[in-house]
Specification:
By secondary structure, the chain is an alpha+beta fold. Helices cover 30% and strands 14% of the residues. The chain is built from six helices and twelve strands. A three-stranded antiparallel β-sheet has the order 1-7-6, with no helix packed on it. A hairpin with a 2-residue loop joins β9 and β10. The chain is globular, with a radius of gyration of 17 Å.
């Protein structure tokens, strides 16, 4: 479903060096760690999840210093993308954003809260699914899936006690990174400390919240 946003009544981000550029998956300075594997950006993590059974492609993506190059690395292997990707990509992105939050709590939480209650919109010249494109009236039009996932996450941070947060992997089959299954991620309020990956009962994460997307 296409939504229309007015720039003057929304938090709009496009480039990572802008005020709200840290909301972008391309933003540096939000390092991740899964199964003791260091990943520079949430974009690289998201792209690696396309190829759960191709360790070499995942390694190519994760090894890139530039998130845009990491994204481009996946394109020659598009035919090897998991078959259900279009059906699960929202779940995967939703999970990636929560990993970013848990492992960079102070910095990312502060940025999310600083957006107030305004709509969050990723401006894009080409992608109206994850973002929204400028229209002839100067407004932004698109599904804005990334912005809406960020707004959902912002609301959750106002309710849930993240000192007791256990992040489940998304409920999809074959969820692997570099040959190993991705486990539950547990945190006791990070305050910028590294996360420990543990297998334990998950207290929170309800994938049914993706019902908010009327696509």
């Amino acid at each position: 479903m296409t939504r229309i946003y007015s720039r003057d009544r929304a938090i709009v981000f496009k480039k990572t060096n802008e005020e709200f550029g840290g909301l972008s998956n391309m933003a540096p300075g939000y390092p991740l760690e899964i199964n003791r594997i260091k990943i520079r950006t949430s974009e690289a993590l998201y792209q690696a999840c396309r190829f759960p059974h191709n360790i070499e492609v995942q390694r190519l993506i994760i090894s890139e210093r530039s998130p845009m190059t990491a994204k481009m690395r996946s394109k020659p292997f598009k035919s090897e993308t998991r078959e259900d990707w279009d059906d699960i990509r929202l779940l995967i992105m939703r999970w990636c954003l929560r990993v970013k939050l848990l492992q960079n709590w102070d910095k990312f939480h502060e940025l999310l809260i600083s957006t107030g209650d305004l709509p969050i919109v990723e401006e894009s010249n080409r992608d109206s699914f994850w973002g929204a494109k400028p229209d002839e009236d100067g407004r932004l039009a698109g599904t804005n899936s990334l912005g809406r996932l960020l707004m959902e996450l912002r609301e959750e941070t106002k309710t849930y006690d993240y000192t007791k947060y256990n992040l489940n992997p998304p409920q999809v089959s074959d969820f692997f990174l570099m040959g190993d299954e991705i486990p539950v991620i547990s945190a006791t309020l990070f305050k910028s400390k590294a996360v420990d990956n543990v297998k334990k009962k998950t207290e929170f994460v309800n994938d049914s919240q993706l019902d908010m997307f009327d696509l």
